[in-house]
Amino acid sequence: MSEMSIEHVQVDPRDDAAAARHEAQHADNLKFAMWLYLASEVVIFTTLIAIFVIFRVNFPDRVEEVHQASGLGLVGLNTFLLLTSSWTMVMGLRAIQKNDSKWLARWIGATAVLGTLFVMMQYVEYSHLASEGITLYSDAFGMRFYAPTAFHGAHVIAGVIWAIWVVNGALKGKYKDGKYLGVEIFGLFWHFVDVVWIVLFTVIYLL
Amino acid sequence: MADEQKNPTPAPTPFNEQNAPESVKATEGESIRELRDVPIETVPDSKLAPEDQAVKAAESPAAREARRAGEETLNKPIEAIEDTVNAADIRDQAKAAHPLPHAVADDTVLFGYTIPLPLYTVIYVILAAITLLEVGISSLPHSILTTIPLIVCSAAKAVLVLLFYMHLREDSKIFAFAIILPMFIALVASIFLLTVPIKGY
Predict the structure, then answer these.
(1) Most exposed of A48, A133, B151, B178 (fewest Cβ within 10 Å)?
(2) Nearest-neighbour CA in chain B from A168: distance (Å)
(3) Which residue in chain B has the smallest CA separation from A176?
(4) In this predicted model, what pLDDT tens digit does every residue of A107-143 receive, in sequence order?
């Protein structure tokens, strides 16, 4: 037989495999960068929480007074709002893993709404505490309480803005066909904010 | 023997794209099946060179059948290797496209029981239940008997979110290390600070 030129109509699967491997490596790099950023946040939050814990150990009566004044109803509700927002976030990721942009937009939209409600409730809580005479400079407790909770609230606000950005991308079909890394990275941030609140809720309001 | 020691066989040059023969470079990106000669009888005469047309016409049906049978026998092990490689590539692609197949499932298997809810919803229900438990414990008079369960509940919730919602269970362990190390250092620093008396020694 002699050599002949035949038109190739079949795409070599190895090209797709190499592209998929490259994509997976790229995703791992971006995720690791996000985890390193979150590690830096851990240092800041842990410092703020440690300052509160030391105050709590040394002045338990003052913290008990504040607990009596603030009550647990409002902050308990807020905790459920944030927990629920973590669930809606991850359900959004699940939707886009099934290539469903419409439900991604709905779930992340719900996350943004719950985050906004959380910040509004935190404002109500701060107003209530201020009316009870607990302000930033009222005594040694004020700064130790407001600094970690307000810093966390700022993260929720940033997360809400990011969520709106993701919803906008989802409506434009940006995350279709397996390209949902942006949703995963946002999810890491949002769940981290939830983890921080889980710790803050126990340390500041329950112990 | 002595000559072999004086003049050992040189190590083969490692293969790379630069030192590859031109004939190999020309085949880059093609599958084994594509590289094999096309059976002459499957090509229309209009696309064959005149000498190939002559070969095709001269071959008797019996000779052609015998030739094809021989070729098929020789091709089988090559095709088996190619199929194995392709299957591995397809598995890689599937893993990249759906890294967390259990996460998109509509039900969850927990301790041998199948729950008709997605994994993420089951985790949410557990998180909510632990939070209610925490609120209940905190309403009891504060003592070490309430402090320890509250810390355990809080840690359990954080670990659940990290493992399942932030996917540390499946992702690289280096991600977990990146976040656990600063947590550990901060914890040790806090314990140090707690040993400092507030009113001096």
Answers:
(1) A133
(2) 23
(3) B97
(4) 999 999 999 999 999 999 999 888 888 888 888 888 8
